[in-house]
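Side project, low priority. Logging it here so it doesn't get lost.
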Amino acid sequence: MCKANVIALFVSKHFLPIGTICIIPLGILSPTPAVYLHGKLPVVQICIVTLFFVIGTKFRLTEIQSALRCYKETAFGIIVVLLLTPVVGTKLLMLPKFRKVPRSALDAENGTLNNSWTIELPDFGPEEFRIGLQIFCVSPCASAFPTVVVTAANGNRALTLLIAVMATTISVFTVPVMTTWLIPAFQTASVSSLTILHRVALFILLPLI
C-alpha cells in the first residue's frame, strides 16, 4: 500500500479529531465567513440534517435488526445517560468551593507525616460556570458524536446510534424535570417540551429515517 493510501485511510478513520483540531483554530482566527452564513442560512440545522441523513444511508438492515435485539444494553445505556450521569454529575458539582486543601505530605527532613501543609488552588470561576457544567451533565450527548467515535473504534455503531437517538428523544421530557430537580437555579424555570420535540423530530429522526 502506497504512502498516499495509508494517509488517506488514516484521515478517513480519524477524521473527527483531525477536523476538530483544524476547524477550531480556523473559526477563532477567521469567524467572519461562519457569521455571514449563519445570518443568511440555517447552517446548524443544515449540518445536522445532512449528518444524520448520511449516517442513515450507511447503516445495513442487519445492523439495525441486531441493535433492536439488544434491548437490555439499550435500556442500560439510556438509564446511564438520562439518570445516572445527571444525578452523579450535578451532585458532585454541588460540592462546596474550596481555596485551600489540607494535604498530608511526607516531611523530607525527618520522614514523618506532615498534615499542616496546604496548597492554594485557583478559583473554578463564577457561579454561572458551575450551572453550565450542571446543564452539561443533565443533557444527553449529541446523537452524532458517540456514533462517530464508536465507528472509529470498530464498535457496535447501530446500537450506539439507537441509544443516542432514543436518549435524545426521551430527554425532551426528562431534561426539564431533571433540571428543575437537580439544579437549584432552574427550580422556577419552565421549558416547553413540545417545542423541543418538534425540532428533534425534524432535524434528527426524519433525516435518519
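Brief comment: Residues 20 and 26 are 10 Å apart (CA to CA).
Revisit when time allows.
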